[in-house]
Design brief:
single chain; 300 residues; alpha/beta; 10 helices
């Protein structure tokens, strides 16, 4: 079987927690999970040539993420976020005018030459016009099987225009139960229940699937083919250390197995297993032990 070819667009940053820097950003977390599982996973982002930028490159190379499309910009620092964990939940102060605010495509011919299985994006990296233009170019010019839009609302870095422009190309949408009413009001000027919200979306956009995450309660899956039916996947019972990166691990794992041909319910179960593993460990990218690899079918 050929390796999945995936491209994640967006922020690379470091969370500063109690004075320590922790590598992350939703797109890069997803890219790393895809690489760990076996995809040919590429990242399109930007870092500086500073200490944190060099550290980011080192982590990506160690994790097997393809960095051919990673832009370096010495005029701006590598992205950072001041993060505080309260009751196991992260709260963020995202710094502006950083390297990933200026994501460029150095070699358009090379990136267009691929038959991509996946293009991944969110809202945060679209906070600059330059990045919105870069993503629009990707959405309009790349050949890809699925566009996965992980809404991931952060602070004030989103708008109706950004969401509508991205939805115009989206085939799989992921958002949280907290984000759904925000988008419902933003897009339709009223709060809709989940099924009605999905029905409105599929009438306007090329959506095939919507994933609604409910934290410890699991996730719901809505299909374009049968919009009145919902498939729910519950989480396991685990001791939560912190929830940083749990959603990204869920996204990366689901996408890997779903795009590799697993039935949706099997891909969802494996994604939930991974998310349970992540929340029971510290940090967004703990080393995967043999138990979780066996549970995911990666080891005999």
């Amino acid at each position: 079987m050929d390796k999945l070819k995936t491209l994640c667009f967006g922020e690379i940053l470091f969370d500063r927690i109690d004075g320590d820097y922790h590598f992350g950003g939703a797109p890069v977390n997803v890219a790393i999970h895809l690489a760990r599982l076996g995809a040919r996973s590429s990242i399109l982002s930007a870092v500086s040539r500073d200490e944190l930028g060099l550290k980011a490159l080192s982590v990506l190379e160690k994790e097997g993420v393809v960095t051919n499309f990673l832009h370096t910009d010495s005029s701006k620092p590598t992205g950072t976020v001041d993060a505080v964990i309260r009751d196991g939940m992260p709260f963020y102060d995202i710094k502006e005018n950083v390297a990933w605010d200026s994501i460029q495509i150095a070699n358009k011919a090379a990136i267009e030459n691929h038959q991509w299985d996946l293009l991944y994006c969110g809202t945060l990296a679209q906070r600059t016009e330059e990045n919105r233009n870069t993503l629009k170019y990707l959405m309009e010019n790349l050949c890809y099987r699925q566009l996965f839009f992980d809404v991931n609302l952060r602070q004030h870095y989103f708008s109706r225009e950004i969401i509508e422009e991205t939805l115009a190309y989206t085939t799989i949408l992921k958002l949280s139960v907290q984000e759904q009413p925000v988008l419902s009001r933003l897009l339709f000027e009223k709060e809709l229940d989940d099924i009605s919200f999905f029905a409105e979306l599929i009438a306007l956009y090329p959506l095939e699937l919507m994933i609604l995450t409910r934290g410890a309660e699991g996730s719901d899956f809505y299909f374009q083919a049968i919009p009145d039916e919902v498939f729910s996947c519950k989480t396991g019972s685990v001791d939560v250390v912190d929830t940083v990166g749990a959603g990204d691990s869920f996204s990366g794992t689901f996408l890997y197995f779903f795009l590799n041909g697993d039935r949706l319910y099997k891909a969802a179960e494996k994604a939930s297993l991974m998310a349970d593993y992540i929340v029971s460990h510290s940090g967004a990218l703990p080393v995967l032990d043999s138990r979780i690899k066996r549970e995911l079918g990666l080891l005999a």
